[in-house]
Design brief:
Layout (H helix, E strand, L loop, with lengths): L1 H9 L6 H6 L4 H31 L19 H24 L2 H45 L1 E18 L2 E11 L3 E9 L11 E6 L10 E5 L29 H6 L10 H9 L1 H20 L4 H25 L3 H6 L3 H21 L5 H4 L7 H29 L9 H9 L5 H9 L11
Antiparallel strand pairs: 1-2, 1-4, 2-3, 4-5
Helix pairs in contact: 1-3, 1-4, 3-11, 3-13, 4-5, 7-9, 8-9, 8-13, 9-11, 11-13, 14-15
Length: 448
């Protein structure tokens, strides 16, 4: 997000504001600059929307408390990230306008940088404090799991909390019993998908902190799914179909996809589908690179235009690499948290830069269109690559569901095995699942 905003706003450092005011044709400078900013905004929207599918279908579930220091949303992490990106982009724009000697734009940018910097300075300590609290909390739970006394508990009573939901998941008031120097009965809440609603007799793993009295702050409870009795009718626990917060589904999206017809195809079909999905991004990257190379070698254009076209070539190549890593089901790619939505958004921001370079450079657009300069293969490659970027963006939206469905479609792991490995505090659970089935599970686990 930081790089996207810095890139998008930094482009305005190349806009000649004074010429724009005095020349009608110079409005072409503003159009691609605004396109770059719009492309960034649409790109972020893409990441947000794609992320909702990726977190459920790529094999993502709740993140264990003891795993990994991921910065929380509390404390304004998203806001601070946005502020840093915008601040960096304004600084880049300030440098560009300063080199032009444009006093008015420089003054406006300085004021914006100071105001946003003041907001950033106020929000950054809040975010860091929340992040440190989360680190301490997760370290405490990890210590309990590592050094605590482990027992197996049994569910003795279950009652669904009336009108209490967490997202589309019902809340259950549960009592569990275990032996810890004598019989213990411990009340707790369980939030889970209706298909995995707790049932009397289910077993759970319990870790008890030996350094403190038994209580909510010294007990870590983890559910078991494999080999446990499941609820007879999960539909009775789901939200009504017309609810504003849920479509009324009893199971997570990835479990539904796992059982869908597309995932019962022969094992060779899913790799073939992934190979087809990678073609448009690859073609886009090739044409973008050829455009940057031919412009650099055959045309005399400003260095800024060449740099922006090469930036477009770099981000489209990165996007194609991400698709190829997905096609190969690269373990590193899926566990890294990188997504096709993010790389596609980067390509879209790069498209804004290419539009700016194309329309604001006379040798690339105005002179050939007016017949004052020849139209060359360099112009063709640049234009085709920009058109392919739009096609690839549409391709991303149209094919994303197919992409996520075919990632793990040919592997026979049961939903209970997948879910248990995702929410398990055992750091080797992912590895065992992959060794057994070839399943590719992510590690940035969110609530689906």
């Amino acid at each position: 997000m930081i790089l996207f905003w810095a890139f998008a706003l930094g482009i305005f450092g190349f806009v000649d504001v004074e010429r724009m005011v005095t020349s009608f044709r110079a409005e072409l400078d503003l159009v691609p600059a605004m396109a770059a900013l719009l492309a960034a905004m649409v790109g972020f929207f893409t990441v947000e929307q794609m992320g909702r599918s990726l977190t459920t279908v790529f094999g993502y579930a709740r993140k264990g408390l003891a795993r990994g220091p991921v910065p929380p949303d509390t404390g304004g992490t998203r806001l601070v990230t946005w502020l840093v990106g915008v601040e960096l982009g304004l600084v880049i724009a300030l440098v560009g306008q300063s080199l032009r000697g444009a006093l008015v734009p420089v003054a406006v940018l300085v004021v914006l940088i100071v105001l946003l910097g003041w907001v950033l300075v106020r929000r950054l300590p809040v975010m860091l404090a929340a992040w440190r609290r989360l680190r301490v909390e997760r370290a405490r739970w990890a210590q309990i799991i590592r050094n605590g006394h482990h027992v197996v508990a049994t569910v003795t009573s279950v009652r669904r909390a009336k009108n209490q939901w967490f997202g589309n998941q019902p809340v259950f008031q549960v009592e569990i019993s275990f032996d810890h120097g004598g019989p213990w009965t411990f009340p707790m809440r369980i939030v889970d998908h209706p298909v995995w609603a707790p049932v009397v007799g289910n077993q759970l793993d319990v870790w008890i902190d030996p350094a403190g009295p038994t209580g909510p702050d010294t007990i870590m409870v983890q559910r078991r799914y494999v080999g446990q009795r499941l609820v007879d009718d999960p539909f009775e626990h789901r939200l009504p179909a017309g609810s504003e917060t849920s479509p009324g589904r009893p199971s997570p999206d990835w479990m539904t996809h796992k059982n869908s017809r597309v995932n019962t195809m022969a094992s060779h079909v899913s790799p073939l589908v992934r190979s087809i999905l990678v073609l448009p991004p690859s073609l886009l990257a090739v044409t973008a690179v050829l455009g940057a190379v031919t412009v650099s070698m055959r045309l005399t254009v400003p260095l800024t235009a060449v740099a922006l076209l090469w930036a477009f070539a770099v981000v489209t190549t990165y996007n194609a690499v991400c698709y190829w890593l997905y096609q190969a089901r690269s373990r590193w790619f899926i566990r890294s948290g990188l997504g096709l939505g993010g790389s596609g958004a980067g390509a879209l921001v790069g498209l804004g830069a290419a539009l700016y370079a194309f329309f604001s450079t006379d040798e690339l657009f105005y002179l050939p269109m007016m017949g004052e300069a020849p139209w060359t293969t360099a112009h063709t490659f640049v234009l085709v690559s920009m058109l392919l970027a739009l096609v690839q963006f549409v391709w991303l939206f149209v094919t994303m569901e197919q992409a996520v469905r075919h990632l793990n479609g040919e592997f026979p792991a049961s939903p209970e095995e997948v879910h248990e490995s995702l929410v398990n505090e055992d750091a080797t659970a992912f590895d065992r699942l992959e060794q057994r089935y070839g399943y590719r599970a992510g590690v940035f686990l969110l609530l689906d």
